[in-house]
Write a structure and sequence with these properties.
The structure holds two protein chains of two kinds. By secondary structure, chain A is an alpha/beta fold. Chain A has 13 helices and twelve strands. In chain A, β3 and β4 form a beta hairpin. Chain B is 55% helix and 3% strand. The chains are: A alpha/beta, B mainly alpha. At the A-B interface, α1, α6, β7, α8 and α9 of A face α4, α10, α17, α18 and α21 of B.
């Protein structure tokens, strides 16, 4: 396998000698990616397993996602409680799914989906930022400059780091930042491309852009070094995403709805990346809009329909490709929402929520934990299960190390 | 003594770089006088740029909102790149990151334009007035649900962020303070049918006295005063301004000094910013990363072009910095986010857009076509030149006859070079 250093010097050298050579970067890149794939599949040093973390940004309302059959739920939400008749019944005592999650029912009943109920971070903060820091860090509440997945990536990094090992789609990714590992962050797959001025040689320009990454003259400026190091990784990632992504949808400046940043579109790109097999082990997929302070019924319905459709199409595609057995998908969100609705037909920031674990390797068809509606703390759902139990299941899936990364051992509830 | 390179770097950080000739002028004035002029433009007789939005009226017709939004963006871009008071524009951008209202939530052009106008009007003015006005601003009331918050069911969204993000910072307040603020802030309502005027509706307001930050308050004015008078306020704002211009590695004693200046000047913003800029010229802090929107404004300013918003807003959004849409209520992420793959790719695309718009006799294209890389770097605000990697890359690119207009290829890569995202 071509080492990263050798690859860069080769491409840089080609750029330095001739325009024809300059165009060679794409071919070299392809070769390198195929080498990485060979290691991923047959080399044994890299597990073939993939973790997909679907991040529901803004604080998903667990009560209206995994709905408890509990009169106290209806009492607390005169406007927002979902009509009994609309709920999706699944094999789960005392719980039903939001109507928008209907496409997940078959997989649930086939035992491939489990839910955590009453899950959240101990010492939960209602602040988005404090909550997100802890959520990403996977600590007991103390500050950390590394994320829980970043620490796992650090612990398992080989001698020749692959910048495509962890990729984030549609969101920034502090959870993936380690002390040595940096994720490849792709905010918008369709706009992730290089361009050149009119009638110029795009390959020569790409090669020159790559060559500006060569060190020298930075006088120890860490930001300048980082800006340089980002360029080769960017060019590699563009090639990958270009082959994996779905076609370009449009963006609406007013509504902000970028079709490609739906769960459906991003999970298709994720499936494409998994199919390409370039050694990607962790994919973070970010969908926003779950901060439903107002007009929740309509907004939340739209979001969950997208999530369910996206997950279903994702697993359908991987099953067709024979890869579904390698993939675990978990949902996360920085906090749940208040039990009581507010005056804006929405819900404010709360504590515990519900999260899902999905895949062929899951011992599913069940709910772990309980809603806690009978034991509210200050009007909030209490946290019965630490978020790090979900993280522990995810890291076990990847082969660990788990407890060292999380700083302690958390109950896995026999989910794998 | 500040070197030309120090002034150039601070200009790229604080004033979207320099229009042609601007750096020479600043060096001629001397660093101290240049900073005085930037921070006190009235006292130095610097012409004021007109408010790009005040004269315009905006239709809130849903079918026209897209076009209206682009007009607002274009007006803003003109101010950023052409204003004789660039620090005012750059501080308005800072406050937009601080208060971080998203057009995606507000959805209507008129209140959003008024929100931007307020940020700009008070950009170097009085923080008290700014915070008071933000609290009952129509866009903010829509953004953080103040408009639907009532005595019966107060919404805590604005109250919490007022404490955590706008005025004091985490750990300076309790959950009880958040609830008290939410109650006292009720009653302010946006009237979409009256051009988004803001009205105080007494029957929606919780007039009960509230214990808030150790005093008794009953209304929005009381809440805002309590925040502004809190001992943590001046230091919180000063530390944010310091990190903006000096990077994250500023020591606590230096920030304490800035906070003292801010407090002694009764929360006037200009003296605070002046102290921070002077400190940087005296060697405090370190370089940091220029995010995509100000980087692009700087590229357009030095090139003297004003592209149509249609030509760039999608690329900025792909870079993670649609200027109308901060990703969340905390504003945009920190410097390392701007060195990820998405913003790195967008740089070359945006640089190419600008190069294609350059008029034929362009000093930048001429320097790139020779190529006279020392002159080109100087024009771009890098008086010490490009690093060795970029220099070799540009030279080799020129040698490969990359096509297009003379100098176009070299200039695009120069504009996208790593050197220009660090300042």
């Amino acid at each position: 396998m071509l080492s990263r250093r050798a690859f860069l010097s080769l491409v840089g050298g080609a750029a330095a000698t001739s325009a024809a050579g300059a165009g060679a970067w794409a071919g070299l890149l392809r070769e390198r990616v195929e080498d990485a794939a060979a290691v991923a599949v047959g080399g044994g040093s890299v597990s073939g397993r993939v973790l997909v973390v679907l991040q529901l940004g803004g604080g998903n309302d667990g009560l209206n996602t995994l709905v408890p059959s509990d009169g106290r739920y209806r009492d607390a939400r005169p406007k927002l409680a979902l009509p009994e008749a609309d709920l999706v019944r699944v094999r789960a005592d005392g719980y039903s799914l939001h109507p928008g999650l209907a496409p997940l029912a078959a997989r649930w009943d086939a035992g491939r989906i489990a839910a955590f109920e009453g899950i959240g971070q101990r010492n939960q903060s209602r602040s988005h930022f404090k909550a997100m820091d802890v959520w990403w860090a996977g600590t007991d509440g103390s500050a950390s400059t590394t994320g829980w997945l970043g620490r796992w990536l650090d612990a398992t990094e080989g001698s020749s780091p692959n910048p495509l090992r962890s990729i984030s789609l549609g969101t920034g990714a502090p959870a993936l930042v380690g002390s040595r590992s940096l994720p490849t962050v792709v905010l918008s797959p369709s706009r992730f491309a290089l361009a050149a001025p009119a009638r110029t040689d795009a390959a020569a320009i790409t090669a020159a852009f790559l060559a500006t990454s060569a060190p020298g003259g930075s006088a120890g400026d860490v930001w300048l070094d980082a800006a340089r190091a980002a360029i080769p990784t960017t060019i590699e990632a563009i090639d990958l995403v270009d082959r994996a992504r779905v076609d370009d949808p449009d963006v609406d400046l007013v509504t902000g709805r970028v079709n490609e940043n739906t769960a459906s579109a991003l999970l298709q790109t994720a499936a494409g990346i998994i199919e390409l097999g370039v050694g990607t082990q962790v994919l973070l997929v970010g969908v926003n809009g779950f901060d439903t302070h107002s007009n929740q019924l309509i907004v939340h319905d739209e979001l969950l329909r997208d999530v369910a459709a996206g997950i279903t199409a994702f697993f359908d595609r991987l099953e067709a490709a024979g890869l579904a057995d390698d993939v675990l998908l978990v949902t996360t969100s920085e906090f749940g929402r208040r039990v009581a609705e507010n005056a804006s037909e929405g819900t404010d920031h709360g504590f515990a929520s519900a999260q899902f674990v999905m895949g062929a390797g899951v011992r599913g068809g069940r709910v772990v934990g309980e809603s806690g509606l009978g034991s509210l703390v200050d009007g909030d759902l209490p946290i019965g299960i630490d978020t790090r139990s979900l993280y522990a299941v995810a890291l076990d899936w990847l082969g660990g190390p788990t407890d060292g990364v999380l700083g302690s051992s958390f109950d896995r509830y026999d989910l794998l | 003594m500040s070197s030309t390179a120090d002034i150039a770097a601070l200009g790229r950080r604080a004033t979207f770089g320099f229009a042609p000739g601007g750096l020479d002028r600043a060096v001629g004035l001397g660093a101290a006088r240049w900073v005085d002029e930037l921070t006190s433009p009235d006292a130095h007789g610097v012409a004021a740029a007109p408010d790009p939005w005040s004269a315009a009226t905006y239709s809130n017709d849903p079918d026209e909102r897209q076009q209206q939004a682009l007009r607002i963006l274009d007006g803003w871009f003109g101010a950023l790149t052409e204003s004789p008071r660039p620090l005012v524009e750059s501080m308005a951008w800072f406050w937009h990151d601080h208060f971080a209202v998203s057009f995606g939530v507000v959805k209507f052009p008129a209140p959003f334009a008024r929100y931007l106008s307020r940020l700009r009007r008070h950009a170097l003015g009085d923080f008290r007035t700014l915070l008071q006005e933000m609290t009952t601003d129509a866009a903010m009331l829509l953004f953080l649900d103040g408009s639907t918050s009532t005595a019966a069911a107060p919404n805590e969204n604005y109250g919490r962020e007022l404490l955590e993000l706008y005025g004091l910072g985490l750990d300076e307040f309790t959950e009880a303070d958040v609830r008290a603020a939410a109650a006292a802030l009720t009653g302010w309502v946006v009237q979409p049918r009256s051009d988004f005027a803001v009205q105080f509706v007494p029957r929606r307001h919780d007039a009960k006295p509230q214990q808030f930050l150790g005093r008794t308050v009953r209304d929005a004015a009381g809440v805002v005063d309590a925040v502004l008078d809190h001992p943590a306020c001046a230091r919180f704002v000063a530390s944010k301004v310091a990190a903006w211009f000096l990077g994250d590695g500023v020591d606590a004693a230096t920030v304490d000094g800035f906070a003292r200046v801010f407090r002694d000047n009764d929360l006037q913003i200009a003296p605070l910013v002046r102290a921070v800029l002077r400190a940087r010229l005296d060697g405090a802090g370190s370089s940091t990363v220029v995010s995509p929107f100000p980087w692009f404004a700087g590229v357009c300013k030095v090139a003297g072009v004003r592209p149509r918003p249609q030509a760039y807003f999608r690329a900025l959004s792909g870079a993670g910095q649609d200027p109308f849409r901060p990703p969340n209520v905390g504003g945009w992420p920190g410097p390392s986010a701007w060195l990820g793959a998405s913003p790195t790719a967008a740089r070359l695309a945006l640089a190419s857009t600008v190069v294609d718009l350059l008029p034929a006799p362009s000093p930048l294209l001429a320097a790139a076509a020779r190529p006279d890389l020392a002159s080109l770097a100087g024009l771009l605000g890098l008086p010490d030149g490009f690093g060795t990697g970029t220099t070799a890359a540009l030279r080799d690119l020129h040698g490969s006859s990359p096509g297009g207009r003379p100098g176009a290829a070299v200039l695009a890569v120069a504009l996208a070079s790593p050197e220009l995202v660090v300042a």
